[in-house]
Amino acid sequence: MSLRYALLAVLTVEPMTGYDLSKLFQQSVAHVWNAPDSQIYPELRKMEAEGLLEGSDVPWGPRGRKRQYAISDEGREAFRLWMNEPIGYFLERDPAHLKAAYLEWAEPENARVILNEHKAHFTALLQDWTSRLIEINTLTNPLLVKRLEISSPKDHQKVVAFKRYTYEGLIARAEQEILWADRGLELLDSFETA
Fold first, then answer.
1. What is the pLDDT of residues 153-176, one digit of tens each?
2. Residues 167, 117: one domain?
3. Which residues form the Transcription regulator PadR N-terminal domain (predicted)?
4. Smallest Cα–Cα separation from 4: which of 29, 31, 24?
5. Do the strands 53-60 and 64-71 form a parallel or antiparallel pair, or are they unpaired?
6. Would 33 disulfide with which of 6, 128, 135, 175, CB 3.0-4.6 Å?
7. Domain that holds residue 16
C-alpha cells in the first residue's frame, strides 16, 4: 500500500484542503497508515499532476488562498482497482521483537525498560483505538458521519461494520502486544529470582 491510496480513501468523502485532509487523516487512516505532513503535501501535488485529484484554489482568511483537492474520476477508478487487488505482504521489520529475541544481552533493568515502553506504547494505542471504536459504535466519529451522509442508506450497515471490524482488529493486536510485554517482564522476574 502506498500513501496515495490512504489519501484517496479519505478524499472519497468530500473535497478537502491539504490542512483539513491532514487533520482528518491523523484521526482516521493514520491508525493503519501513518504519514507526516512532509509526505502528505508532496503526494497530493503528485497525485494532482497525475490526474488522480483535481485541485482548486479556495479563499483562506482575508487575502489568502489554500489548495483544495477533490478525487477525480480517474482517482476513484484507481482507488477501486487498488481495493480489488490482493495485498502484497512484505517481510516483517519489527524492532521490539528483534530486541526481545536477544534480551539476554541487555542489562535486566534495561530489558525491563524496553518491555515497559512497549507495553506503554500499546496501552496508549489501545486507549485511542477503543475511543475510536466507541465513536464508530455511537456514530459520532466525524469522518464516519460524513461518509454516511454521502453513502446510500442501503450501504450504511456495511460502512459501519467494516470500520468497526478494523478497530476491533487493532484493539486485539494492542491487547496481544500488552500481554506479550507482560510475559517478557515475567520472564525477567523468573531469571532474577533464579
1. 999 999 999 999 999 999 999 999
2. yes
3. 7-80
4. 29
5. antiparallel
6. 6
7. 3-83
